Amino acid sequence: MSFAELGLSEAILRAVTENGYTTPTPIQRQAIPAVLKGGDLLAGAQTGTGKTAGFTLPILQRLSTLPVKPGSRARTVRTLILTPTRELAAQVEESVRTYGKYLKLSSGVIFGGVGINPQIKLLNGGLDILVATPGRLLDHMQQGTIDLSKVEILVLDEADRMLDMGFIRDIRKVLAALPKQRQNLLFSATFSDEIKALADGLLNAPEMIEVAKRNSTVEVIAQKIHPVDRDRKHPLLAHLIKTHDWSQVLVFTRTKHGANKLVEQLGRDDISAMAIHGNKSQTARTRALADFKQGALRVLVATDIAARGIDIDQLPHVVNYDLPNVPEDYVHRIGRTGRAGATGEAVSLVCVDEHIMLKGIEKLIRQSIPQQVVPGFEPDLNARPQPIQLRSGGGGQGRSGGGRSAPNPSSAPRSGAARPAASRPAPAQPGRRTGGSTSGNRGR
Ligand code: AMP
């Protein structure tokens, strides 16, 4: 099946072709016709499935064919796309621009951590598509700088993550400001009771689609465990990068402190590395990501929340320097590699403290991950596990600087319940920092 068969206009097809896509992915094959019909949609799809184009392409098509409602456009938006993090918001809006290149539609993105005034200016003239994180959107609503009464289409992207990050109350406030008559699209990788409740209240007779079985890891990704002692993780990582000559590696640490420490250690090994996490300024994060994408940076070290939604085409290597506290995060992490058909490798450095977490992950993905001891890095078989939350900083697993509190690894289920506001990560917090920029996409 081709994109043309999905009923997309010539202007959109041209942009898609120029972007190098020839065949729609499964989520696109199902979502595009469903959204074009105008009804509500509940879609189960993870990052890496092509879901962004799955909703962006038909939305662009609908907006370009539906007449603009009469009346003032000032401060109004026609489509509102909510995402959990700044990075994802920026990427989604970039997709809107890419695919809407040959259409006369306007788009913009707003998120916290950057100055609000350019955003006010951007919103003032009205937009066809606005991508936003919930916190900053709420700031604008409170200041009266946005009018949501003309929203025709609402998208909740990565809804499960938004709930995990404690955004449910913000989302409900946004929903209350929307007109009753509208099209709603909800995308989520998982379906907790909380997501189901949100979907029940939000969606009207939705079409339901699901791609890639829930919690199943993408098959093209080769997964491997390297057992290692906790204080030998850093030399092992440096060894792997050097001996295999890895040029672009995304490394996950459990904590911000661990990320910073690892960057310093790799620097001493002459391996260029930078960290992205909630304590870094937006400018620093954007620069690190850009350098990494361009190949100027060999290693990007990230915490789970900061990495969410990072879209890097064909990322060959993902390393779990620490296993995640929450088993589902393993699936999200390794989803960074082997995207849209490319093959990738996900390597986990696992010490004795993490055996219980590993069991949790293997249970979730319903497969056992092959283990391979790297010669010279054989773990001490008599080592006794230490509780992860009691150490500070060792192997990057300490409590200090941790974005989330580390639960007992033996009881680390994803409850689906919102985390307390205090542990909400920085990425989408409204108005806590100043500076930065806002992008608009008007009058192409
Ligand atoms: P997403 O799930 O939206 O984050 O997209 C994952 C990746 O797949 C992105 O890098 C897209 O550029 C890429 N992608 C999306 N649709 C297609 C397609 N039809 N063919 C090839 N790559 C695609």
Walk me through the structure.
This protein has helices at 10-18, 26-36, 51-65, 86-99, 117-124, 134-143, 159-164, 168-176, 193-202, 233-243, 256-268, 282-294, 304-307, 327-334, 355-365; strands at 41-44, 77-82, 107-110, 127-132, 153-156, 183-188, 207-210, 221-227, 249-252, 273-276, 299-302, 317-320, 344-350. The chain is built from 15 helices and 13 strands. With 444 residues, it is of the alpha/beta class. The two termini are 31 Å apart. The longest helix has 15 residues, at 51-65. Helix 6 (134-143) crosses helix 8. Residues 213-218 and 390-444 have low confidence and may be disordered. It has two domains: 3-215 and 404-423, Rossmann fold; 221-391, 3-Layer(aba) Sandwich (Rossmann fold). A seven-stranded parallel β-sheet has the order 3-4-2-5-6-1-7, with helices on both faces. A six-stranded parallel β-sheet has the order 8-13-12-9-11-10, with helices on both faces. It is elongated and about 75 Å long. The structure holds adenosine monophosphate (AMP). Adenosine monophosphate binds at residues 21, 23-25, 28, 47-53, 311, 313, 339-340. Adenosine monophosphate is lined by residues 21, 23-25, 28, 47-53, 311, 313, 339-340.
Write the layout of secondary structure elements.
Blueprint: H1 10-18, H2 26-36, E1 41-44, H3 51-65, E2 77-82, H4 86-99, E3 107-110, H5 117-124, E4 127-132, H6 134-143, E5 153-156, H7 159-164, H8 168-176, E6 183-188, H9 193-202, E7 207-210, E8 221-227, H10 233-243, E9 249-252, H11 256-268, E10 273-276, H12 282-294, E11 299-302, H13 304-307, E12 317-320, H14 327-334, E13 344-350, H15 355-365
Parallel strand pairs: 1-6, 1-7, 2-4, 2-5, 3-4, 5-6, 8-13, 9-11, 9-12, 10-11, 12-13
This protein binds adenosine monophosphate.
Adenosine monophosphate binds at residues 21, 23-25, 28, 47-53, 311, 313, 339-340.
